[in-house]
Amino acid sequence: MASYADKTFTPPELIRNFCIIAHIDHGKSTLADRMLQITGVVEERAMRAQYLDRMDIERERGITIKAQNVRLPWKVGDVEHVLHMIDTPGHVDFTYEVSRALEACEGAILLVDAAQGIEAQTLANLYLAMEKDLTIIPVLNKIDLPAADPDRYAKEIAHIIGCAPDDVLRVSAKTGVGVAEVLDEVVRVTPAPVGASDAPARAMIFDSVYDTYRGVITYIRVVDGKITPRERIKMMSTGATHEILEIGIVSPEPKATVGLGVGEVGYLITGVKDVRQSKVGDTVTSLRKGATEPLTGYREPRPMVYSGLYPVDGSQYPELREALDKLQLNDAALTYEPETSAALGFGFRCGFLGLLHLEITRDRLEREAGLDLISTAPNVVYRVVKDDGSEMTVTNPSDWPTGKVAQIYEPVVKTTILAPSEFIGAIMELCQSRRGQLGGMDYLSETRVELRYTMPLAEIIFDFFDALKSRTRGYASLDYEEAGEQESELVKVDIMLQGEPVDAFSAIRHKDDAYSYGTSMTTKLRELIPRQQFEVPIQAAIGSRIIARENIRAIRKDVLAKCYGGDITRKRKLLEKQKEGKKRMKTIGRVEVPQEAFVAALSTDSTADKAKK
């Protein structure tokens, strides 16, 4: 394989750039593994499952988080072709990774499980690929499973993308059956990249990762011209200039080459330590006689969900900042800013693309930096118009205005749900209870239906997906995309301990849902906060109106233990003295809330269970 990297520029007509679109667990990484084996890029003894998934967390959960690219040689007849494959994530929270991968490709393999059929998130990514005019190659995987029904799902795919059912390829990525035919089909139908080899160099940055020793590694797709080592380059949006220390291909380990030409995908290293200087979506050009027009970039990802991340030990705050800085180098969709909480101390308000993104980010910070973190309840961004006409954006309940407000706007999303038709009633009931409005319904086949709802994002981010799965016995799949905002009747629910609001437990809720949140939170805290020397009231309030209350009973010391026999008045005197003491203690005493109570009250169920363990 070394000779492959030593060659000069590959002619564009022999290059094919493609990606794999699939839902979680439909065999995307397994198919990538087989392709690596068949093309001989990875030797048999070095092979391992999920070869392209580099992170421990990806291997444990069996999901792809980062898109990975790899160069594969493939012979059709006597002609040697070069294939650039990008393995993309399947979960809706990582659609941003997928959209970047699609920009670097001309073709896409649509991989569908022959036992489950197409899922909502795959459908969303398929539409993204169709918008970019990519050639779609439909493939049914797992045909070796006893439950597989390839004929039925081939018809379903044909109906969606407008091809004949016979055009859908059938493979088993596990056994390797049909994988060679897929690569032949990629070469046959995917268009070769188009670009001017004699024009000024232009390359699109589609990903970047941070390496502790080498700095930022930037992944590029060359569109025009060529880029060579030791050349000085310019980033067109930031204006930063660098010298290329190394340029090469990934096959599947990085290999330095003499440069990259039209249509080639590879990496470049400039020794820069600040990833903000190689922004994803930027255009790289030569410093001398460079291009004047940049390539069309990507839209910046907009955070959908906000949550506060706080170190359990306050002294770890600088380490958390450093860890977030490093993580942002690998994850362009993560945003954060410092914030303080009266209850939790110093931390960061972080923006995520969804709940899984939040969970993965928190997991990575805890593993990679050795931190113990508390994450506050996730919430979305609200736009508040005050009585005087001024506007403010609220990402944190503690920023909620105290005076009168004229209007409150909350973000809404277009939701697509795919499920067997027998569950239509249960799904409709769930969506209506979450303030959803039905936008349309289509039958993909006799037994499968697609429902489209417009729903407030705040209703989806917490436990909607779990509720949907339990009502449809795990068969439903969900996808959502932002769809603007709507006016809504929202209130801030404060949780107070002994009359003092605890900002970490505050939440913004719809007027109809405020009472149930208040009662559930007060009940939860009554069980979690240990008894004090005095009685502690836990109250939920909207403004000055109390909507729920629970009491934590006082621990009563037995002051009569030393009295045996004797006059009753002496006992009564001791009890009165104790009562007075408790009254005084109540006015000066602060309620101690243990860290575990914060973790359990603020977490979703899964993280609460983890905290208890």
Automatic annotation (TrEMBL):
InterPro entries in UniProt? EF-4, EFG_V-like, G_TR_CS, LepA_CTD, LepA_IV, Small_GTP-bd, T_Tr_GTP-bd_dom
A Pfam match? EFG_C
Q: Which reaction does it catalyse?
A: GTP + H2O = GDP + phosphate + H(+)
**Major place of residence:** membrane
Question: Which residues belong to any copy of the Tr-type G domain?
Answer: 13-194
Question: Phosphoprotein: is it a keyword of this entry?
Answer: no
Q: Which domain of life is it from?
A: Bacteria
Write down the EC number: 3.6.5.n1
| Gene Ontology MF annotations | hydrolase activity; translation elongation factor activity
Q: Where in the cell is it found?
A: Cell membrane
Q: Does the keyword Repressor apply?
A: no
* Annotated positions binding GTP: 25-30, 141-144
- For this UniProt record, give its keywords in alphabetical order, as a comma-separated list: Cell membrane, Elongation factor, GTP-binding, Hydrolase, Membrane, Nucleotide-binding, Protein biosynthesis
Its membrane topology, per UniProt?
Peripheral membrane protein
Its family?
Answer: Belongs to the TRAFAC class translation factor GTPase superfamily. Classic translation factor GTPase family. LepA subfamily.
Provide the function of this protein.
Answer: Required for accurate and efficient protein synthesis under certain stress conditions. May act as a fidelity factor of the translation reaction, by catalyzing a one-codon backward translocation of tRNAs on improperly translocated ribosomes. Back-translocation proceeds from a post-translocation (POST) complex to a pre-translocation (PRE) complex, thus giving elongation factor G a second chance to translocate the tRNAs correctly. Binds to ribosomes in a GTP-dependent manner.
Q: What is this protein called?
A: Elongation factor 4
Its lineage opens with: Bacteria, Bacillati, Actinomycetota, Actinomycetes, Pseudonocardiales
Q: Tell me what gene encodes this.
A: lepA
